[in-house]
Design a protein that fits this description.
The structure holds 2 protein chains of 2 kinds. By secondary structure, chain A is mostly helical. Chain A has helices at 2-25, 33-38, 43-79, 82-85, 88-91, 106-137, 140-154, 158-177, 185-209, 213-221, 226-237, 239-255, 258-263, 284-291, 300-333, and strands at residues 96-97, 102-103. Chain A has 15 helices and 2 strands. Chain B has one domain (2-245): 3-Layer(aba) Sandwich (Rossmann fold), CATH 3.40.50. Classes of the chains: A mainly alpha, B alpha/beta. Bound molecules: adenosine-5'-diphosphate (ADP) and magnesium ion.
Amino acid sequence: MPTNQGKRGTFARITRALTSLVTLCSGMTPLSEAMTQTDKSGVSRTRWVEFAIEGAIRLLGFSTIGFVLLIFLFLLREGLPIFYEVPLGNLFGTRWYPTFDLFGTLPLILGSILVTVTAIVIALPLGVATAVFVSEIAPHWAREVLKPMIEVLAGIPSVVLGFFGMHFVAPVIRSILGAPTGLTVFAGALILAYMALPTIISVAEDALDTVPKSYRDAGLAMGATQWQTIWKVVVPAARSGILMAVMLGMGRAIGETMAVMMVTGNAARVPLSLDSLFRPARTMTATIAAEMGEVAQGSTHYHALFGIGIILFLLTFLINLTAASAIFHKRRRGGLR
Amino acid sequence: MDKIRVEGLNFYYGKHRALTDISLAVRDRRITALIGPSGCGKSTFLRCLNRMNDTIRGTRTEGRILLDGQDIYTSGINVVELRQRVGMVFQRPNPFPQSIWDNVAFGPRVLRSHTRSGLADVIEESLRGAALWEEVKDRLRQDALSLSLGQQQRLCIARAIAIKPEVILMDEPCSALDPIATLQVEELMRSLKMDYTLVIVTHNMQQAARVSDWTGFFWMGELVEFDITENVFTRPSNRLTEDYITGRAG
Ligand SMILES: Nc1ncnc2c1ncn2[C@@H]1O[C@H](COP(=O)(O)OP(=O)(O)O)[C@@H](O)[C@H]1O
Ligand SMILES: [Mg+2]
């Protein structure tokens, strides 16, 4: 049957292309023996094509690394000077008034942390509950509807969310609290929680999915209810994945700028009083975004903004590191049995 | 005395009939072994006895299974309570990725069947019952996955007896174990017989002959032979059984 063979041929070619891609990516020697055997006439050409593809992929890979390094070096060059231009007491002081040469980053750092942590405290239970619902309880059709919907959630631009927060969430908060403004840490945290939710849900759901069915069977066979099995067996078994979900959500939240700038009120005060949650605050990202337009290149203020960038980068890096070590532990424990 | 009576059991995975008209009686505090070639329905039958098949979509059961005279497939039955009375040990050891202590404590905690101080006693008793206590008593807080496979399987048995079931079902409990661990588990089965009714699936015929009191031979979803073990192995009434146990079929 010629047609059938034709199809087979295409299929084989695609498979071959894919395998060579995979070998290339994993850095092994390309050109499997099978390929050398299949078409003798094409060997040298295949070899050449392989070589070109391999070279191109290498180039792309290394240039990505190069760009990341460059950006990092640039960040260091522009940001590090602040750490010796300004005394550390000033730099980690409580007052951020660049016009008066006061560069206290403490309120900004604490502002970012407070907004982010509040956001996660809101998003974590919601996200995990949704993930449990989607992966353990929902009937098949509901899962098929919910999963794409969650992905759509992730696609809403942050400006739109910020606009929504400014005109709907903040007024509600203001009228409930009777406060002078609804543009508060809490409003920012709500919007950020909303933005972190899709990440948390989908990563946590993946984690729940990799929990072997044998654990669930064991729980049910012991006379545990479905709920007890989920809560006492499945969720604990997925905890490293859930931790990773939280970290990724946090990474997303702490780096978010636009929505936060629009709804948190941007007052650079140290948010350590009890009512801080319901008062304005200012984050590191919002500070950089709001002030970058007005600084003179090379000025102390300019270096200070990049200095904040370095601090932000370190925080994000730390969060990612925690997430990575969570994955590492999971692999080592053999959680994917 | 009959602990479980199965009457005219048919079982379906969707349209596929996996069990045909099974009837047998499981004696109280005896070991009943089920043998037969792969795919003949042994596991399916075992999972009917604690309704674990309910967790698989599209399955259907006909006929009756009486536990102490009460049909476990009538609508009034509480499946969760049933599984507390009929425990199960699986083919691959499947301890939870938690400490040894937490594994054994799982059942008692879920059932709240203990006082706070009683939990330690329950755990020791269960681990002793599963002949594991001496090996793990100094590292109860360690991850259960750090145990050897044989120890893991005995831990699963300890976990099962911690809720004090009446019947324990074991689906090829030794198939993932080495010969020494297998002998330990077999030894354990004999001692469990004092307090529990055991139904074990095995495709190791020597094992069935060594440990069981009654043996059932399954063949393509049917129960071809069911008798006292000695009879099944010395004078089987069916040609198929004879061929299978002498190694000519299967
Ligand atoms: N989850 C399932 N869905 C559909 N068919 C199944 C399922 N489990 C088992 N079967 C089928 O039921 C029959 C009996 O299987 P099983 O009870 O596992 O046999 P055994 O344990 O004796 O090897 C086989 O034909 C098998 O393909
Ligand atoms: Mg089986």
